[in-house]
Amino acid sequence: MIQKGIATFGLDYGKCPRWLFERMVKLGREMTHVIVAEYGPDEFVRRIADPVWFQSLGTVLAFDWNASGLTTILTAALKEAIRGNERQFGIFICGGKGKTSLKTPDEIQNWGSALALPGPHVDNLVYNSRMAAKVDSALVQDGFQIYHHSFLFSRTGSWAVVQQGMNTRSQTARRYHWYSAKITDLVCEPHSGIASQVRAPTLDLTAQQSARTRAVSTELVQGSYTGLMKDIQIIRKFSSPLSQTVTLASGKQTATFLHLENKEFKRHPVLGEDFSKSAYLEKILTKVCDVKPKSYEQLLSLEGVGPKTMRALSLVSEVIYGAEPSYEDPARYSFAHGGKDATPYPVDRKTYDETIGFFSRVVAKTRLPFYEKQKMLAKLGRGA
Predict the structure, then answer these.
(1) Which helix (H) or strand (E) holds 146?
(2) pTM higher than 0.70 for the full model?
(3) I want to staple 317 with a disulfide (CB 3.0 to 4.6 A). Which of 82, 201, 323, 335 is the partner?
(4) How many helices (H) and strands (E) does the chain have?
């Protein structure tokens, strides 16, 4: 069973040695070959969307540590491993780290043309890729900047996203996983898998608890720009708007200015928000109110709408209309199967054993030399 959430790792600035990358490509090709032959391309995509399985795959191939490099190097190695054999495997990997992530839409389009996929289907894949990046930067405001985005899909349309953000202040990286079959709403708890070592101050606008915030935010931009700016001006009257509790009036509705310093996350990004110099925000809100999006998802999808826009609407929704969003970090668990000291939860022996058993069977069926298999099986044995 795949849980919901995200994964957090130490930030690794090192460069992967060429010999290690080449080894990962070689082993990754063999592992992919066996998994696809035994279970099919859709199952490969599904498993990549599980952070525990993804982490385990990286460990089996080469990595003995929990670092951000596992994400970037593993996805790059898998992309290189299937290069030239994408049609055979039925799997296509687009995007990557840094500037390569910006090429994701073009790569999806290119594969769509090469495979003669229907235009609407290709457009939908591009849209899902773009929205996954937007959600994790604008709706899950946890202090991590997205710098890696990989989009995997099968010929039948199953897709997954593996993307990672960095927080240079805390020297950590956080990985976000998505899986198409598990998503019913792109803006409401869309992530698959959960694995995290640390909690972070977070404004989580994707949480079920934030449903009313999403609804009120949508209603605000469906109304007049003048009315919305009146609410924004109320917030601007206070130099440190979230450091005090006062009663405000907005039209016929009276609401309490929420006192967020008593919340668990006192260093949340909305604390001390400065709306006094926000000409760009006003420009975006003018555009959005003119479009009048029919849904929160459509609002987010508009060009120019980013973290500050969604944060401003969230503040107005909470402060003026009492629609409090979730300030709880959606990360729940450790990056592995649990902790031996029962922190953050006891080791899930069944899942642990199933993961080891799965990789043991796959390794045994690869065409690798005996000594290579033994090395990989030894790693699994140490994990047990």
Answers:
(1) strand 145-154
(2) yes
(3) 323
(4) 14, 9
